């Protein structure tokens, strides 16, 4: 922040002589915003195949602590990390299991998913990357000392997934005081799913993905700590409206916006006052906003 006291200004003016224009006396001296937290979207997915261990490592290599991912559930109940509800775009499932259209994640077992290549589509150097289980992903973030913004994807497709996620987080050591306070946020586009997480574990920080009307924000503040909207839907006024409210933990609601990949947009988002920026290119956003 550019902070200047009246006393210091007066003393400096005396030294420079009457009428001298001090830098901070110039009209419209810009207020510098605090640098937002940078979150690697699906890992550093501009540089490595999204939602793989390689993408988490790519974020780590850039010095990025926060990683966002997307969680689904297999037919036999394993939690796995990938974005789409089907496997076509980011794996070779159509070659390996040609008779299993529409290749929905929920129709495959964990053992079947483990046979798929989730890296080649992005680049040959990633051939052999797998769809990680949530447990594998958590272990990798732990090894890297990273933090997780976990998205529950399509929660209506997976009844009870909130409890499953909490069970896996607990078994992996992610529900101790240190992780819960500093290294974990659970978010979803499904408000009911976020409410369930909050009811099951009120100590966990939660996020709602979307842009609720300002008039509706107080009802969200009952169960979510963050409102995480698309960058295209917000401006400084919206961010300020969210910031006027306190969440279930008595702290000001936070705003993490997505998906911002260009430096100029990152600067605009920062100047709107957002707390975090979710991006495929975390180095670009960090360098533009810090
Ligand atoms: O974390 C925000 C963002 O990931 C939401 O959209 O479709 O990329 O999961 P999507
Ligand atoms: Ca996501």
Please outline the helices and strands.
Layout: H1 6-16, E1 37-40, H2 53-61, E2 66-73, E3 79-81, H3 93-96, H4 110-113, H5 134-144, E4 147-152, H6 161-171, H7 177-182, E5 184-188, H8 191-200, E6 205-209, H9 217-220, E7 226-228, H10 236-243, E8 254-257, H11 263-272, E9 276-279, H12 282-289
Parallel strand pairs: 1-2, 1-9, 2-4, 4-5, 5-6, 6-7, 7-8, 8-9
Antiparallel strand pairs: 2-3
Bound molecules: SN-glycerol-3-phosphate and calcium ion (CA).
Summary keywords:
single chain; 290 residues; alpha/beta; TIM Barrel; eight-stranded parallel β-barrel; 9 strands; 14% strand; globular; binds SN-glycerol-3-phosphate; binds calcium ion
**CATH architecture, please?**
Alpha-Beta Barrel
Unreliable runs, pLDDT <50, ≥5 residues? 1-27
Shape: globular
| Cα-based radius of gyration, to the nearest Å | 22 Å
In CATH terms, what is the fold-level topology? TIM Barrel
What's the CATH class label? Alpha Beta
Q: Give me the strand/helix succession.
A: HEHEEHHHEHHEHEHEHEHEH
Number of domains: 1
């Amino acid at each position: 922040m550019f902070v200047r006291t009246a006393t210091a200004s007066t003393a400096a003016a005396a030294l420079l002589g009457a009428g001298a224009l001090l830098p901070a006396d110039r009209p419209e001296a810009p207020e510098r915003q605090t640098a937002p937290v940078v979150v690697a979207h699906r890992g550093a997915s501009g540089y490595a195949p999204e939602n793989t261990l390689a993408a988490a490592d790519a974020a780590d290599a850039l010095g990025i602590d926060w990683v966002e991912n997307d969680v689904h559930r297999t037919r036999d109940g394993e939690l796995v990390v990938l974005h789409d509800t089907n496997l076509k775009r980011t794996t070779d499932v159509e070659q390996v299991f040609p008779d299993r259209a529409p290749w929905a994640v929920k129709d495959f077992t964990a053992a079947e998913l483990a046979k798929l290549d989730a890296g080649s589509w992005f680049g040959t150097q990633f051939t052999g990357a797998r769809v990680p289980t949530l447990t594998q992903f958590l272990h990798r973030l732990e090894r890297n000392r990273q933090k997780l913004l976990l998205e529950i994807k399509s929660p209506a497709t997976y009844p009870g997934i909130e409890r499953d996620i909490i069970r896996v987080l607990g078994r992996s050591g992610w529900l101790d005081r240190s992780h819960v306070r500093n290294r974990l946020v659970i978010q979803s586009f499904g408000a009911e799913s976020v409410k369930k997480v909050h009811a099951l574990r009120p100590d966990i920080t939660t996020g709602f993905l979307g842009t609720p009307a300002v008039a509706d924000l107080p009802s969200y503040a009952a169960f979510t700590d963050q409102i995480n909207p698309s960058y295209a839907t917000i401006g400084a006024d919206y961010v300020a409206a969210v910031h006027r409210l306190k969440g279930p933990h008595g702290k000001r609601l936070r705003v993490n916006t997505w998906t911002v990949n260009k430096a100029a947009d990152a600067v605009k988002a920062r100047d709107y006052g957002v707390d975090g920026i979710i991006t495929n290119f975390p180095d670009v956003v960090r360098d533009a906003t810090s």
